[in-house]
Amino acid sequence: MSLRKTVSAIILAAATVSVAHATDVRHFKGEKPETMAEAIAILEKYNTQLEGRIKYELTPYTMAQIHQMSYSLENALQFIEQHLEQTQENLEKVHIASETNDPETVQQKGEEYLKGTKDLLGK
User: Fold this and answer.
1) Which of 58, 71, 84, 87 is in the most buried spot, having the most CB atoms within 10 Å?
2) Alpha carbon distance 79, 101 (integer Å)
3) b/e string for 88-121 if b means 16 or more Cβ within 10 A?
4) What does pTM read for this prediction?
5) Number of domains comprising the chain
6) pLDDT tens by residue, 65-106
7) Residue pair 122/100 in contact by the 8 Å Cβ criterion
8) Burial, 42: exposed, middle or buried (Cβ in 10 Å; 0-12, 13-18, 19+)?
């Protein structure tokens, strides 16, 4: 480990111990996806990191890392949730329009629904 990384690790560990004893917890912004592909990439990146860290002893330093990465994971899941809600709403409009014989809405909202699912499926 380079000197820079070692010093950074020591500073983060010291800050973590201080935060652990403080009444308020430090908050981070995390990575914010702007596309479905970015949201999925964030999940893949941080899920892999989380999986690796929880297999071992959870030191204050590791807990600080997990805390920080959880913000990016939450942002990615929130983006996906909002995307799914919109996609579901479009499908519901297709469903209702198909019942009421409204081909214009079926076509328009059907295209929006298909785009939403293609984004979700990475196509």
Assistant:
1) 87
2) 33
3) eebbebbeebeeeeeeeebeebbebbeebeebee
4) 0.71
5) 1
6) 999 999 999 999 999 999 999 999 999 999 999 999 999 999
7) no
8) buried
Q: What percent of the chain has pLDDT over 70?
A: 79
Helix, coil or strand: residue 100: coil
| Total length of the chain | 123
Range of the domain at 47: 3-121
How far apart are alpha carbons 74 and 108 in whole angstroms? Answer: 31
Residue type at position 59:
T
What would the two tokens of residue 46 be? 């941080």
Mean pLDDT of the chain: 85
Contact call for residues 30 and 74 (beta carbons, < 8 A): yes
